[in-house]
Amino acid sequence: MTDTPSPTASVASASVPAARGIAVRRWLRALLPALSLVLVVTAIGVLNPRAISYFGFSLMLGLAIPIALATIAQLFVITVNDLDLSIGTFVGFVGCVTATLLRDNPLVGIAVLVAAIGVYAGLGALIHLRNLPSIVVTLGMSFVWQGLAILMLPTPGGKAPDWLLTLMGLKPPFVPFPIIAAIVIAVVVHFGLMRTSYGTILRGAGGNAAAIERAGWSLLRTKVTMFTLAGVFGVLSGMALIGTTTSGDANIGNGYTLLSIAGVILGGGEFVGGRVSPIGAVLGALTLTLAATQLLGFMHIPPDWQVGANGIILIIVLAARALLSRRGDAV
Amino acid sequence: MPEIGNTIVKLDGVERHFGAVRALDGVTIAVKAGECVGLVGHNGAGKSTLMHVLAGTGTPDQGTITVGGEPQTAYSVSRAQTLGIRCVFQELSLCPNLTVAENTRIYHPSIRGIGWRRRASDLISAKLDEVFPGHGISASDIVQDLAIGKRQMVEVARAFTVTDAPLRLVILDEPTSSLDAHTSSQLLSFVRRTVASGISCVFISHLLGEILGNSDRIIVMRDGKVVTAGAASTFNRNRLVTEMGGIEAEPAAVAAAAMADRESRKLRVRARPVRQSDGRELIAREGEIVGLAGLAAHGQTDLLLAVFRAATQRAANIEVSGPVALVAGDRQTDGIFAQWSISENIGIRSLARLRKGLLISPAREDEMAARWRDKIGIRTPDMHNNILSLSGGNQQKALFARALGSDAGIVLMDDPMRGVDVGTKLEVYELIRDEARGGRTFLWYTTETDELKNCDHVYVFHNGRIVADLRRDELTEEKVIQSSFAESA
Amino acid sequence: MTRLGRLLEKPWIWSFAGALLVWLAAIAFTRGYGAGGMVTAALSLAVFTVIVGIGQMFVITLGPGNVDLSLPASIGLASAVAMKVMGGNDAMVVVGLLAALGSGFLVGSFNYFLIRALRIPPIIATLSASFIIQSVDISYGRGLQIKPPPGFADFTNLQVLGIPVLAILTVLFALGAAVLLQRTIYGRQVLAIGQNIRAAGLAGVPVGRVRYLTYALCGTLGGLTGALLAGYFRGANVDIGNEYLLTSIAVVVIGGTSVAGGKANVPGIWGAALFLVLLLTMLNTFGVSAGVRLLLTGLIIVGVITAAGGPKSAR
Q1: Strands (DSSP E) along B111-247, which ranges?
Q2: Domains in chain A, CATH or no CATH each
Q3: Which of A295, B86, B403, B457 is deepest in the core (most CB within 10 A)?
Q4: With an 8 Å Cβ cutoff, are A318 and C128 in contact?
Q5: C7: pLDDT confidence band, cut at 50, 70 and 90?
Q6: Which C positions 44-103 lie with beta carbon below 8 A of chain A?
Q7: Is the pTM of this model over 0.80?
Q8: SUPFAM superfamilies under this entry (chain B) (predicted)?
């Protein structure tokens, strides 16, 4: 095929081998989140065979649902080249609302949560209209949410509404609930963002905003949509978290900001350019949950070093990803 | 099909200001159905601004727009689209993270609902086949994986796709700037077919031959005004250049005699492309201008970058003696520092020499900037102005000044004349020949065959390999094109 | 008038104006009582924020995605290293300081190693590094109860006419940083990389070396802050640097440095640091609860950044 003498064919074939190489590497990269999850599960299985069971997974993945939801919230924001440094405290705030207002006074609770999503939508609009750096705005908002959470629940306490406890405690046959939930989240978000026609516009806004605007789309609308979705998934994350832990704490979500960013990146997303993968992000969140809490315990890592081991796991996976990515990006 | 001869778009007394600059100063033009209007003018003459007004991405400060006989009051991008006016901008307007099909969907609000992906794929594939037969682009390719020439092909083809809105006028702003001779001619013949079917085109190009050969009517702009307009047959190259306010036409026949003493000169660069399987290699000696030719993106830029890296790190198959500077062709991504002044942009390659003691001396920096403003003719009231205040051609001159003002004995040029006006080109050619006489070595990748006439020696590339090695006296356009397509053993 | 106009165009003027406003609000509340003391206290605390802020500023100026999240861990580790090496002995102060700087330098080097060799995005690289450093610090500094040498502790608290000596030195340090940024080859190269890393490489900027130096510089300044904090608060602590994760970023941005990179502003960091410290002082004098204090701090950061406005988009 490369040797066809006609001029047109030789133009076409010029960069085909290169493109194929890129495609193969892209495939490997896309598989990496799944591979790292398999690796972590295998390691757990070797260290503690009993953990690989219906009950074991239900237990180990209990916290995976809120983390996966928070990761998806972060993914929406990252898609449009922003970063949400407030998602952790937002999840904490939602948790406090869930453990108090939503139980005692459901209508007020729902109103507060809807208003909180409205605040997210407003932030999106503000960031777009005033051309603000999202890092700083959400940094400020992280104080706001934490302040509100403390005002609402000065000391840990409260209790999740019963329906939420029932939902999170579901024991479906054969497959543990967290796994089903993770699949549902991944599939729904993948379909919405990667397969629908408006999802294309949303990702395009991250890739080349000027091009989207020139084609007649509203960038304000894309930004507000993404931040609203982030708010919605943040609320879901906070509720899922309280449904799992049963009671609230103003500081409960603080670690989620960094976990969610790490999950998106681990899942193959990039900080700029609208390149994200919802399925990868959910896998990344599962990997982080298992690696951070379970694997280390089974490996008898001393408590002093558990945090450090988390860092090392992150580094290993990302280094593997980097090896598969394109070489020579920088001169 | 609209009746040929009806005016479909009319601009009347359009003005647009950027601060004190009058980018458009009362422009009145009309485009009739089924005609191809060529638009020429130097950089900064107002062509691109005019196109933005037509496409609805820039609102005029004064004047009226009439489309199909109706005066437009709230003209915008989406209004332009419903009226069937499309624009291919000079800066690429594709989303690099999306596939070719997805980029097509962005262009057409009506492609949605179940099966949208299939429809978008079919639409763009069919159009690509029609415009660029044998293009080798798949609708599922992600744009960032495509070479720049292929991206431009996608962008052009996309502008001609039709869904529910009619297609009446397509504005092509430098559509061939990243295309090689072959794909350019495919595009131009497609444009002629399209115009014959009743759709209008406004065609902007710095290549006057393309304008003369493909337009029905030509409009010449200068300083934000239309200076003349008329049937294409009434123009020739010299008249166009004169009307544009340029220097006298036709690059002066290159004077320098062929280098008889080539072997005796000092070797500056010896490089073999990675994919070269035979013994061929590129040799450049002191005082030589060496051209890298062939179809766009066939390994020329890769070789330049390899030489650039080899100047600081050891590399296999490449020898470089002396410091190297590079003049980027893709100004925005590879050249310009957008927040800096013109003088800071020029000085960055020569910081060590601008120091006085440990600190950079503003006086020396100003002195260097002033010297190069005069030498290369950068048109600005103040070299402390932001680099983006310059027109594209003058930005390119600043990049030349950066390289030529440095200590580099070897200057690499990565198709640096993309989208640069004729006047600037002629000035820069002259300067390059001057510098070469002074002992500098140039490696010059260009997609414009005309420019190769300035070179002492030309290497033709194909598929990442050198396939021909032509001396100045052996150089003809036919030979270059022939070897560009030929597979070498 | 035009001079005033030009002054108002400077992005950093707003952070100073904000600091002044907050201070006036606080002394209006106390009816002028403790106005001077408030300034002294604010200057003392702002010193630490300014030093880490300048390090963070150089990193952020390298362009989108560049940020050092390992500063808190690095500060904590350096505080422990400094106290251990000094061992409460005045003769060892200089050695201890150097050890703290060295520990910060190593952290910075490690960060860059992760970024470059493993090609990990800086945010995640410094985050992962901070996890590891935290663990090192926890096991190294376990049960560390060493007080700083008395001479060192006194020095960090020394005042001349109500002005902390450390603050004066930090003003000089900031001047030095401004010169480094605008008038040296290194500074120009940082700015160039921040605007367009590809173009910088093609213009002959040694991108790798400059980025390495910048991360190492930021780490080193974190180390310095750790030692000074341990002296000022009389003892090392794993959590001593925690608040600087957010504040170091906040002062850089409120101070007028572009988060998109390539444009930095040193004076603004002083203004922003004073603003944030005085804000806390003001809220404390008002006697508000922790929740309200956080809430207001957050709203004010968002308000300030909204009012100051983002950079106008190019074109």
Answers
A1: 169-173, 200-204, 217-222, 225-231
A2: 36-317 (1.10.3470)
A3: B403
A4: yes
A5: low
A6: 64-65, 67, 69
A7: no
A8: P-loop containing nucleoside triphosphate hydrolases (SSF52540)
